[in-house]
Design goal:
Length: about 200
């Protein structure tokens, strides 16, 4: 049974056992574009990747399934060298603690996503980044573009162009990196992990 057959079986829910860890060569390979129309398996895979993220963000389900919380997942992390990514970024409650009007700031499956334009300004998350494929903490600023324009296709083969900034921009860049064989710690300054470049935005 192929990897995609296993992952898309009706009874299968993606869990941590499906996610490969650093050292696996698939994480360093440049993934292949998907072709349209997509196969049923590629559509189902996208939906299951998004469901994994939902499960991982639900405290009860995550505990039951033994999941680490995630906001993004790329097909190469499932040992599938295809340009498929899923992102699920929740909106946070406001300062008074009221729930957000919209549950998610970003909720989508992107096929063949690529950055087509970006800001000169760099940005990094203050607390650094983690990755479901990396079972250790790697401290340091992961330097990325503050703003990006991304082209991608949805499951119906329709092309979209979105402009992203802040946290959403960081999440999507992290996942697109996975489809290019790049790990987040490749973008940390080895000599000075917390170096701040000129004009760099540090996102709290």
């Amino acid at each position: 049974m192929s990897v995609i057959e296993k992952l898309t079986k009706p009874a299968h829910s993606i869990d941590m056992n499906d996610i490969i860890r650093e050292g696996n060569p698939t994480l360093r390979a440049v993934a292949e574009d998907v072709t349209f129309p997509l196969t049923d398996q590629e559509i189902i895979l996208g939906e299951k990747m998004l469901q994994f993220l939902r499960n991982s963000q639900d405290p009860v389900t995550a505990e039951k399934m033994g999941l680490r919380g995630g906001v993004g997942l790329a097909a190469p992390q499932l040992d599938l060298s295809k340009r498929i990514i899923a992102v699920l970024v929740p909106n946070l409650p406001d300062k008074e603690g009221n729930p957000p009007k919209e549950a998610y700031a970003l909720q989508t499956v992107m096929y063949n996503a690529k950055v087509v334009a970006h800001s000169v300004q760099d940005a990094a998350l203050a607390e650094g980044e983690g990755c479901l494929s990396v079972d250790r903490e790697v401290p340091g600023y992961v330097v990325r573009h503050a703003r990006v324009t991304v082209d991608y296709f949805d499951k119906d083969g329709k092309k979209h162009r979105i402009k992203l900034k802040g946290y959403n921009s960081i999440v999507v860049q992290h996942e697109i990196d996975h489809t290019n064989g790049i790990m987040f710690y490749d973008r940390i300054n080895e000599k000075d992990p917390f170096a701040v470049t000129d004009g760099m935005l540090v996102i709290e």
